[in-house]
Amino acid sequence: MTDIKALFQQAVELLQQLISIPSFSKEEDRTADVIELFLQKHGVETHRKLNNIWAWNKHFDPAKPTILLNSHHDTVKPNSGYTRDPYDAKIEDGKLYGLGSNDAGGCLVSLISVFLYFNEQQNLKYNFCLATTAEEEISGVNGLELIIPELGQLDFGIVGEPTLMQLAIAERGLMVLDCTSHGKAGHAAREEGENAIYKALPDIEWFRTYKFPKESEVFGPIKMSVTIINAGSQHNVVPAGCVFTVDVRVTDAYRNEEVLEIIRQHVSCDVKPRSIRLKPSSIDKDHPIVQAGITLDRTTYGSPTTSDQSLLDIQSIKVGPGDSARSHTADEFIYVDEIREGIELYVKMLEQLV
Predict the structure, then answer these.
(1) Rounded to whole angstroms, how far apart are CA atoms 283 and 107?
(2) pLDDT score of 1
(3) Which residues contact 39 (CB under 8 A, 6 or more apart)?
(4) How many Cα atoms are found within 13 Å in the side-chain-facing hemisphere of 279?
(5) Is pLDDT at 100 greater than 90 in this prediction?
(6) Does residue 36 contact residue 46 with C-beta atoms inside 8 Å?
(7) What gap in Å lies between CA 28 and CA 293, rounded to an integer?
(8) Separation of alpha carbons 250 and 259, rounded Å
(9) How far apart are CA 87 and CA 258, in angstroms?
(10) 61-78, pLDDT tens digit by residue?
């Protein structure tokens, strides 16, 4: 199907159907069913693993590079500020209301439409792989990460998140570190023990002041913040241990593993990352998909929020209809015209490449 007007109407109807079904992270089975059936009704051969649905274009050629189109269909739970039914997908004054409408339902249905637009076209320079995935809101292991091995070789990706259709060409990674300084218990009234709090202080100061040699052109320096400290059991006991947590926002100038190694070389405490999965991501500003967006008067920026981009080892761009400022807010909505514009801009960008 190549009629964008028809694709747009179907996208809005699909989004209304998805909004009407609760799809909290790890509970997306019913929305996965809807997406699977929708694609199959349009003649698409689908593949499924848990609540993730993916497909390749009809004339897939393994000799050609493949573009990933990805967005998610899970949502957070509605917050207490809602004044409307979160699952009542009404359109009022050009706004489509409902939980997940903006994050990231509008992006999801727009990318599905784009996939259908190109699906039956022959002699494309690229293949397309559509991945509609689960557990993005909790960075879960049973979402995009689970099916990446199934998707084959990918050249670059478009990750659908609400960016007002501006081009997020970089995204910070995240590491949360649990650090432990070891001392020796003793009575506070006597010259006994070795105070673990005092041992932790130089390391905490290092985290506060250290500047990594390389800086990101988009984000500048890596940011490290000590956010939690726990030590001691009572006033008259010298603490034998001090545990503190560090929030590390990694830029595209480094890989998480590199940052962790540098940290361990400079501090004396034990450093244990909770995860190194959430990697920084970026795409070259001169990449054809970025340049295609720029020719359409799109601007580039670095995204402060984390998405499924962090799970990809390929270059990727984050772009989609909707506004990140509306994500997770009460009475969430997306403008219907944003969906139409999203489909049109995605198609215009990709047509310059494929």
Answers:
(1) 19
(2) 56
(3) 46, 53, 55, 112, 130
(4) 16
(5) yes
(6) yes
(7) 32
(8) 8
(9) 44
(10) 999 999 999 999 999 999
Mean pLDDT of all residues in 227-251 = 95
User: Where does residue 94 rank: exposed (0-12), middle (13-18), buried (19+ CB within 10 A)?
Assistant: exposed
CA pair distance 303, 282, nearest whole angstrom = 10
C-alpha radius of gyration, the chain, whole number: 23
- How much is the pTM? 0.88
Sheet holding 223-231, edge to edge: 223-231, 241-250, 173-182, 270-273
**251: which 2 tokens?**
């830029």
Rounded distance between C-alpha atoms, residue 161 and residue 158, angstroms: 9
> Of 296, 295, 297, 317, whose CA–CA distance to 308 is shortest?
317
State the Cα–Cα distance between residues 33 and 276, nearest whole angstrom: 32
| CA distance to 158, 202, 300, per residue, from 354 (Å) | 14, 55, 22
Is 262 within 8 Å of 212 (Cβ atoms)? yes
What the block records as the tokens of 101 is: 């409408």
Beta-carbon contacts of residue 13 (< 8 Å; ≥ 6 apart): none
Residue length of the chain:
354
- In 185-322, where do the E strands start and end? 186-187, 223-231, 237-238, 241-250, 270-273, 281-282, 300-303, 315-318
Q: Rounded to an integer, what is the distance from CA 307 to the centroid of its chain?
A: 1
d(C-alpha 57, C-alpha 309), whole Å: 22
